[in-house]
TrEMBL record:
SUPFAM superfamilies: vWA-like. This is VWA domain-containing protein. It holds the Pfam family VWA_2. Residues 61-165 form the VWFA domain. InterPro entries: Mg-chelatase_DI-like (IPR052989), VWF_A (IPR002035), vWFA_dom_sf (IPR036465). It comes from Caballeronia novacaledonica.
Length: 224
């Protein structure tokens, strides 16, 4: 089922949190009453609507750098796509993070921070090879997202998984991601469809690399 959504919108708009940091001063009374249950209402039960202020969105990109991504220059294409997405994040004052995985390791290449215009300089040298340790990559991304959630609980956290899905691993989605987008780089007339299967399992949004390149960042849809 298609569902258009721009990347600065969220399907979790109904989520509310206790007031801290960047939350609004507008009380959400339904969530507040649910929080207090049968107890006498006091300050600790108050729930506030979250607002989207400067830097209120974090886009964490998980890049598959395995050997299969080298075929057909998929990795080069994915890196070019990252440059474009980082440029958009910079214009919208969103924060970005980058985790790469391949072979037997995962590495946080960019901790959460501003997306500077010179990102291409340090994205270009990223190489690839080896297996596809998706679970390890997701674990590293989850650590980044969890740390961000502790420091900025009001921040919306997106996880973008750029992969061809060439793995038998079926890890669970990080609970600390408010939104997940699977960008599928699998090519060929016969496809295993594992990227789409991951999106289905996670209830994530799904888009092929071709569609993202042609339609911009607003053309992806739910995997469910």
């Amino acid at each position: 089922m298609g569902h258009r959504l721009r990347w600065n919108e969220s399907r979790t708009k109904g989520r509310y949190v206790a007031r801290e940091g960047e939350e609004s001063t507008s009380i959400d009374w339904i969530s507040t009453l649910r929080s207090k249950r049968s107890m006498r209402l006091d300050a600790r039960h108050l729930r506030y609507r979250r607002t989207q202020g400067k830097g209120a969105v974090l886009h964490c990109f998980l890049l598959d750098c395995s050997g299969s991504m080298l075929a057909g220059e998929r990795l080069a294409r994915a890196k070019g796509m990252l440059v474009a997405l980082f440029d958009r994040a910079y214009r919208e004052r969103a924060k970005i993070a980058l985790v790469c995985f391949g072979g037997e390791r995962a590495e946080v290449r960019r901790q959460p921070g501003a997306a500077h215009w010179f990102n291409e300089n340090w994205i270009a040298p990223i190489g690839g090879g080896g297996g596809t340790p998706l679970a390890l990559g997701l674990s590293s991304a989850a650590t980044v997202l969890e740390r961000a959630a502790r420091h900025r609980p009001a921040q919306r956290r997106w996880l973008w998984v750029l992969t061809d899905g060439r793995t038998n691993e079926k890890p669970q989605a990080p609970a600390s991601a408010d939104e997940i987008v699977v960008v599928d780089f699998e090519e060929g007339s016969i496809r295993a469809g594992r990227g789409k299967a991951l999106a289905l399992d996670w209830g994530a949004r799904y888009i092929t690399a071709d569609a993202l390149s042609e339609g911009g960042d607003h053309s992806y849809h739910r995997g469910v």
